[in-house]
Amino acid sequence: MRRKSLGIGVLLTSVLGLTFVSTGTAQAHGYTQNPPSRAYLCKLGTVKNCGSIQWEPQSVEGPKGFPARGPADGKICAANHSEFAQLDDPRGGNWPATKLTSGASFEFGWTLTAAHATTSFRYFVTKNGWNPAAPLTRAQLEPAPFLTVPFNGRQPSNNVRHSGTIPAGKSGRHLILAVWDIADTANAFYSCDDVTF
């Protein structure tokens, strides 16, 4: 009887251990810090009522291949994750926005909680006249990224910085969509950054 109890205990410990390991690896990825993403603003507590994204801003991972594939329109900021739907809520166009200068250089920054082999980092911006009070769609974005940083399968450091030039001719409120394309999986990480020019 004691041997049977011991066997069940070992089995339960193994199952719980595997569950913990699986959960731990799922929480490691990345988010933009400069400009601060919606997920990062939730983590900081700058924005309230964010749901579970406040504890895992690094987990906005979805299918890669944007804009031809990837998250559905209206679900881009949460990368199709219903549990992160607060990121797709435009909040009446009132997310805190970082001030940028149109046509100026800017250093973009990511915090990676676990680095992956990387294809590239890409940055898209909304078109002039887009509606900041509506969920983000492809039609609201310029069709091509204004900055692409190729990585050719290399693994970045945990603090990634790249300088680029903000598109000229932008004014008022906009959104920058940062996409981190992973080389060795079918996924990418998506980060929505509210800005004002």
UniProtKB/TrEMBL annotation:
InterPro entries: Cellulose/chitin-bd_N, GlcNAc_Chitin_IntDeg, Ig_E-set. Keywords: Monooxygenase, Oxidoreductase, Signal. One of its GO terms (molecular function) is monooxygenase activity. Residues 29-195 form the Chitin-binding type-4 domain. It holds the Pfam family LPMO_10. Transmembrane segments: none annotated. PANTHER family: CHITIN-BINDING TYPE-4 DOMAIN-CONTAINING PROTEIN, GLCNAC-BINDING PROTEIN A. This is Lytic polysaccharide monooxygenase.
